[in-house]
Amino acid sequence: MPERRQPINLEVNGRTYQRSVEPRLLLSDFLRHELRLTGTHVGCEHGVCGACTVLVDQQPTRSCLMLAIQADGASITTVEGLADGQLLHPVQQAFWDAHGLQCGFCTSGMLITTVALLRDHPRPSDREIREALSGNLCRCTGYQNVVRAVRLAAERMDAASP
After folding, report:
1. What are the sequence ranges of the domains in the chain?
2. Contact between 69 and 23 (Cβ < 8 Å)
3. Which fold has domain 6-81?
4. What percent of the chain has pLDDT over 70?
5. What span, in angstroms and rounded, lies between the C-alpha atoms of 105 and 65?
6. 3-state SS string over the chain?
């Protein structure tokens, strides 16, 4: 018996979408294939690597572990939603300036995780940064520049806040 498609309504990067999806469609696949937001990367498909991390109602979430129908009514932010047109988000700019990325595969998950970290802890210690990013695996860097990038973003965002 074929599965019945289910209607979902959600907001992604400030835009409202209404779609009909298969009940077992993963949120990562919905974002990548239905909405063509390919910045959400799929690595391990087990929630271990963190490459698929997005914000769901402002909380970092592994989109490869969540069904699209579970996101019904949610507000989602992907890496594509961080920049304001051509103006990079301060976290994106800091990663660029501090060379906190190499191949870029893990970067979207790290950026999303960092945005949530700095929202909740505007002045994190290096230990807190490393702990927050411990669920985001990278095979290219030694994480030193990633930590520097998060520190730089925190400093810049703190200096810009009223």
Report:
1. 6-81, 90-160
2. yes
3. Ubiquitin-like (UB roll) (3.10.20)
4. 98
5. 18
6. CCCCCEEEEEEECCEEEEEEECCCCEHHHHHHHHCCCCCCCCCCCCCCCCCCEEEECCEEEECCCCEHHHHCCCEEECHHHCCECCECCHHHHHHHHCCCCCCCCCHHHHHHHHHHHHHHCCCCCHHHHHHHHHHCCCCCCCCHHHHHHHHHHHHHHHHHCC
With CA atoms as reference, report the closest residue to 29 among 48, 12, 42: 42
- Which tens digits make up the pLDDT trace of 75-116? 999 999 999 999 999 999 999 999 998 888 789 999 999 999
Write the single-letter amino acid at 90.
P
| 90-160: CATH topology | DNA polymerase; domain 1 (1.10.150)
Cα R_g (the chain), whole angstroms: 16
